[in-house]
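subagent[fold] <- orchestrator: predict structure for attached chain, return tokens only, no commentary.
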Amino acid sequence: MAKYLVIVESPTKVKTIKKFLGSSYEVAATNGHVRDLPKSSLGIDIEHNYEPKYITIRGKGDILAHLRKEVKKAEKIYLATDPDREGEAISWHLLYALKLEEKLEEKKVYRITFNEITKNAVKESLKNAREIDMNLVDAQQARRLLDRMVGYRISPLLWSKIKRGLSAGRVQSVALRIICDREEEINAFIPEEYWSLDVDLKVKGEKKPIAAKYYGTLKEKQGISSREQAEAIMESLKDARYSVREVKKGERLKKAPLPFTTSTLQQEANKALNFSTQKTMRLAQQLYEGVDLKGEGTVGLITYLRTDSTRVSGEAAEAAADFVGAHYGGQYRSALQEEKKAGQRIQDAHEAIRPTDIKRTPDSIKEQMPRDLFRLYQLIWKRFVASRMSPAKYETTSVKIQAADSVFTLAASSLRFDGFMKVYSLKEDREEDNTLSVGLNEESELSFLSFDPQQHFTQPPAHYTEASLVRELEELGIGRPSTYAPTITLIIARHYVVKEGKNLYVTELGEAVNNMMKEAFPAIVDVHFTAGMEQLLDGVEEGSVKWKTVVSNFYPDLEKAVQAAEKALEHISIQDEVSDEVCELCGKQMVIKYGPHGRFLACPGFPDCRNTKPYFEKIGVPCPKCGRDIVLKKTKKGRKYYGCIDNPDCDFMVWQKPAGENCPDCGAPLLVKGNKLVCSNAECGYNIPAEVPKKA
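subagent[fold] -> orchestrator:
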């Protein structure tokens, strides 16, 4: 009979860990959380020091009954839930759900954590068994209660003002605001004209010409803002003599990337593999918990996937250094590895994400894994190996060419040693290799061939992708890496945001929710306030701040804001807006309602009449192609655009609101952007203040 009981979160781990520990150990799983706040109420006793009212999660009764039986048989119980704040809280909840706190005198209960599911890591954790860390538990409780307060007190207001089923959240609402703010920046962006001026020159004795870029004058760097300015420069250099003023050669090092953290893994998997954050975390969880390999059984392939740390244990660092030296040569080993002391070990539950065994190369297990699981493992393996390798080295050449008072430049870089890029390189790394095709020095004779002036326009900020949103949230200190995937998944599921290609776009529904949140709860969606709250929660985790202090300071202000919003809504009758459309089935005037994808027309005779149709907001502007009405429409996913009501017979569409006038320069429709009218033809660049009379 087993003397010891090990309780883990996921049933996937059970068989593997049992194999490591042998017959003296029984291993059982909780299948995640076992207790939580009730869904039917706030679940927090505001009157009694914000005490949470935890209940057993529905459906966990049988699991807990099985665990209680196993607890009775065991001499020692090891709570081996995940090595993070959430896992610590699950272990603490188990103490109460299994009534272990009443049996501490007769039963020995320990907390153990392991960063990877390997035999050594699991056995080592038993040697370092400890008590539950209440700072981690309290940090999780504080986050849970704050999220519950925001969600349960604000969401009903969204239901009454907009539609049922909507939600607000401490991190979710800020993420939505960040995306909305970017959308506003893009819509208000006015392109500005600028020019580049290249000169093509022949080098005596060389077959290939060179192209140098205009830099400015001998005194200063100078931009070119118009065709006239570009033409004036070319005219001033009509008979100029071109000579090499300076040639500088140097070396540039490109450092190896750091191993992955949760957020950098999400970003890179999105950019390199086009994985959503949710998909990345799901696949990483599988790699951590174990994959069946021939001859080995279920094997955990990577370390724990929720981490902010780039640290690597001494043992893993030494193994990586040996692997790099053996497979690529000593010159590829990072100098950092040489400085490591032999046998050095770093006891840190929050290591970077890395392969559990560097010798388990992607190619050696490729045929035993589904394609996407393999691709993510390969990305993690290559990134870790690269992180332990030497920098790439480039030889750089910088040339200044003088013509009269003007200066032109050209720069080139040539890869001399690939270093870490032998294993791991991105598209931008490869594009840096730009070799100078001819030899140049101060004695080189140059002769003029031609000018190449080019018109350009500044570009608006890019729409957020999942990768860039994760990076922005992390840089602003909003939420934590483990919350990014569920946050992005939620705002897409609520139809506040749609994903087209890689880009995230705000829907009409998302705009409505964001506007209400900004108006009624400015602090909740304030980036700086939310980041400050994260710092307080980190303080709870470190033991410097009491968790109930954070909660008790937050709730009164939230409640005050909710009451003010409720009072403001009290005297507003939230009725459906009547449209001009008549229901063709029953003759009633159709009304405007909100659905998952925004507004639509519905018959007020529901349920007797169930007629619905798309709602198009007319903007009083005729279509420049056919003369019919331009209306505000949405793509299938919910992104807004302006198009002809006669679609598909007329295909006119633009992303910004048409002004109803045409550009005096090229005849294309003018669009309203902020306080300006801008030509829809990107090649034109015409724009004027909207309030100023237009050119004849």
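orchestrator: received. Logging for downstream: The radius of gyration is 32 Å. Residues 134-161 form the longest helix (28 residues).
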